[in-house]
UniProtKB/TrEMBL annotation:
Stated name of the protein: Putative ferredoxin subunit of phenylpropionate dioxygenase
Segments forming domain Rieske: 5-105
Pfam assignment, any one: Rieske
SUPFAM superfamilies: ISP domain (SSF50022)
Keyword annotations: 2Fe-2S, Dioxygenase, Iron, Iron-sulfur, Metal-binding, Oxidoreductase
InterPro entries linked to this entry: Rieske_2Fe-2S (IPR017941), Rieske_2Fe-2S_sf (IPR036922)
Highest taxon listed in the record's lineage: Bacteria
Sample GO molecular function, one term: monooxygenase activity
Keyword Ligase appears in the UniProt entry: no
Stretches of the chain forming a coiled coil according to its record: none
Tagged with keyword Zinc: no
Length: 120
């Protein structure tokens, strides 16, 4: 398995903020954003909301969720599922690893969630 792609330094994204990653860097057709929860934890999700065309990186990030800026669906940062309407489909998650002061992304590899799911 790959070692991932270095996409940021830990201090590049403040808690409660997000960074849209260049698709040339992630080598994906769809933009991926790096989200930093208010507790400092990093997550990566597809940037485009599953409801309509809105950038989730422009949403409100708090307590393990990001709220879409257009119609306010909240998505779980850990597994991408919508927590309320109007979105009904999840957004894809991508595995993130923090190693020292660097943040690494594994595009296309689903984030590990605490349900026993194994990705390696
Ligand atoms: S575009 Fe995100 S909830 Fe409608």
């Amino acid at each position: 398995m790959s070692d991932g792609i270095r996409v940021a330094a830990v201090d590049d994204v403040e808690p409660g903020e997000a960074l849209v990653l260049d698709t040339a860097l992630t080598a994906t057709a769809d933009a991926i954003s790096l989200f930093r929860d208010d507790d400092g934890t990093y997550y990566a999700l597809d940037d485009t909301c599953s409801h309509e065309d809105a950038s989730l990186a422009e949403g409100w990030i708090e307590a393990g969720e990001v709220e879409c800026p257009l119609h306010a669906t909240r998505f779980c940062l850990a597994d991408g599922r919508p927590m309320c309407l109007p979105a009904t489909k999840p957004v894809r998650t991508h595995r993130v690893e923090v190693r020292g002061e660097e943040v690494y992304l594994f595009p296309g590899v689903p984030a590990q969630v605490e349900t026993g799911q194994i990705n390696s």
